[in-house]
Amino acid sequence: MRRYEDTYLHKGLRKQLVTYLREVRGIRDNRVLEAMNQVPRHFFLDSAFDRIAYDDRAFPIGEGQTISQPYTVAYQSQLLEVRPTDSILEIGTGSIYQASVLAAMGADVFTIERQHKLFEAGKDFPLKDRFPNIHFFYGDGYKGLPDYAPFDKIIITAAAPYIPEKLMAQLKIGGKMVLPVQDEEEFQTMMRITKNDDGTWEEETFDHFSFVPMLEGSSDQGNK
Q1: Cα torsion at 137, 138, 141, 146 (round to 10°)?
Q2: Nearest-angstrom CA–CA distance, 90 and 121
């Protein structure tokens, strides 16, 4: 059985990563940086990755999915403008790293995973006692969680072919959604959507990224 230890080496590597994100990558939200300094990224990877877990790159986690590179996590978290006690819907639980960063910032995180094996693996989440404010769900991210709506913020961690209107309906007035939207090229454009009081929304576009595609349905349902 794996032992989860956060050694001085890991803490030092994490501090170096945070310095890199601030000074080289331009992340300015100190609350995002502090959260990433608190969350041991190596806990979310196989122990074989321990010494490279704090490299600024993505790693496979199974089922064709990846743990996003730290810069991507920091970038999306910064765009969300997270406030303590925000209710945040996350589409694509994956490794649970992004959800943990948001939870470390004080948000109440509702996260959906469509891959059943990843959802089941999340039941042994090593930081579940530390982050009881993460709530796990299995299902179709396109449908969201209407029973728990409305949400202050929504974050999508896969490339959507369009802005999902069912999710927009679950966003509070004045709330923000951050997601990568597939363009005509190989990459996706990061967007931030702010919902107006008349149900319309404002769109902001940012940098290009590369994400796995956002798929409909759950893994034991095909694309029903």
Answers
A1: -50
A2: 17
CA distances from 77 to 16, 141, 197 (A): 19, 19, 24
Smallest CA-to-CA distance from 144 within 175, 111, 184 is with 111
Tokens 């576009």 correspond to 205
pLDDT digits (tens, 9 = 90+) for 66-96: 899 999 999 999 999 999 999 999 999 999 9
Q: Is residue 77 among the annotated active site residues?
A: no
Distance, CA of 108 to CA of 151 (rounded, Å) = 10
Distance of alpha carbon 26 from alpha carbon 3, whole angstroms: 34
Q: Which of 68, 87, 95, 100 is catalytic?
A: 68
CA distances from 179 to 6, 157, 199 (A): 31, 7, 18
Whether the CB-CB separation of 3 and 47 falls below 8 Å is answered with no
- Whether 217 has a pLDDT exceeding 70, the answer reads yes
**Rg from Cα positions in the chain:** 17
Helices (H), the chain: 8-23, 30-38, 70-80, 97-104, 116-121, 165-168
Predicted TM-score of the model (pTM): 0.92
Task: Reply yes or no: is the peptide bond before residue 164 cis, omega within 30 of 0.
Answer: no
User: Residue 131 class from Cβ within 10 Å (0-12 exposed, 13-18 middle, 19+ buried)?
Assistant: middle
pLDDT digits (tens, 9 = 90+) for 184-196: 767 789 999 999 9
CB neighbours of 81 closer than 8 A, spacing ≥ 6? 153, 176
